[in-house]
User: Fold these one by one.
Assistant:
Number 1:
Amino acid sequence: MADLSATMTGPRGAKPRRVLSGRNIMVYGTLIVVSLYYILPLWVMVMTSLKGMPEIRLGNIFAPPVEVTFQPWVKAWSEACTGLNCDGLSRGFWNSVQILIPSVVLSIIVASVNGYALVNWRFKGSDVFFTILIFGSFIPYQVMLYPIVILLREMGIYGTLWGLVLVHTIFGMPILTLLFRNYFSSLPEELFKAARVDGAGFWGIYFQIMLPMSLPIFVVAIILQVTGIWNDFLFGVVYTKPDLYPMTVQLNNIVNSVQGVKEYNVNMAATLLTGLVPLIVYFVSGKLFVRGIAAGAVKG
């Protein structure tokens, strides 16, 4: 009897979808085209960086190297001329590291405290303060170049790494403050109220409640700052001097050099070396980045 009733009612559940539907073909086709658009230049860069100049002159840029050589990478790192110095990108790498670490740490600490205070410890004029801060993030950097030069000169830190660290910290605060404010506003308000009832103060709540729950948004902030600061060229060339140039400025000097033979394999290796740090940071923490965005990083 049970079998008869099952036969009469027919199969249950959602109707199976066709694998090769028009919608799927369009979606996957678009994704494949976009992926190739980004992957092909990277493929050409990697293959070129592993070839010698005689093989490059044959002209087949998409073909893998017949004889793999890492000499272009060695030269890009320690021998290529980046101006008056011919010690490769190694000097610029350590300059970039010295700029990156304090800039990321300072900007994220200040922005996280700002966002926490704007959400949970609202003060008179906090909305005006937040509006001015966000408005500052839309001012073009070029407008502020010369005033900041004068400011850093008066402070005695123009042309130093710490001057550039201060610039990156200031320009990173508005957008990071917005991210942290929106994330903290998405957390249950009852946690803050319960902590206040238990007698916790400003810093107690920040360190014991907010920070442990904010790993995803901190990862978002780290990725944004690492990418922006490491890839910066404009501030690096304006606010530092040749001995302290970051890696991107040295890369520009290598690629745009007009002396001698144009070594495309060295140029490609130098470009890949310069981009490795933000790529590694993103691939290591990519899942937390997506989680941080989904958990309130773009909520109003």
Number 2:
Amino acid sequence: MFRKFIEMLKRGDLMKQALEDSYSMFDQSIKIFEVVTRSFFGETVPEGFDVYREDKVLNNMERGIRRKILEHLTINPRQDIVGALVLTTVIVHMERIGDYSKNIYELIEKKNYTTDCKYYNRAEVLARKLIPSCKRATEIYRKSGAEEAKLLIKELNDLKKEFERNIDEIMEEENITVKNAIIFSLLFRYFKRVTAHTMDILTSVWQPFDLIDFFKEEPTQE
């Protein structure tokens, strides 16, 4: 145990390392999401990009952060417990963004959708709002900007409602092929889940641990 303790001291503050790693992990998850989403709408994938390899990088990051947290708590069981719990929670959301990005890529591989569908155009417009918002989320998370996080969560919540509305509309749509109905319902669903996970990560910036993942809308003024 003493040898392990010395080794950990040499490696520096493990909780600080774990936090820094979580910044990189969030960046990685949004990078994957951006590339596959832009690819869905016809943009060229960067040379050498492989979604499954990139997702493995993301998964390895998650495991590495967990190891650092566990090693830290093994030596300092009463120190940084809340921080450890928060980090363990948010990295799960980051990993899930990677999973939904893979799901979007699998829709592209099927090549069963058409670009002349009105839901294609709607999805593209919403994606062009969602991608920069997700990038802003990584910056806000890195600098722990509480007020910025609250404002961005409201914006993301509005986008989430748009995805929900389109899914509901597709369910009632009569002039749509079965293939397009399935593909775009799934696409809006994946966008909605990426949005929700991003919002959950942002709640960690200011919410106490027991309220992370919970966003309460303010009542509408009438």
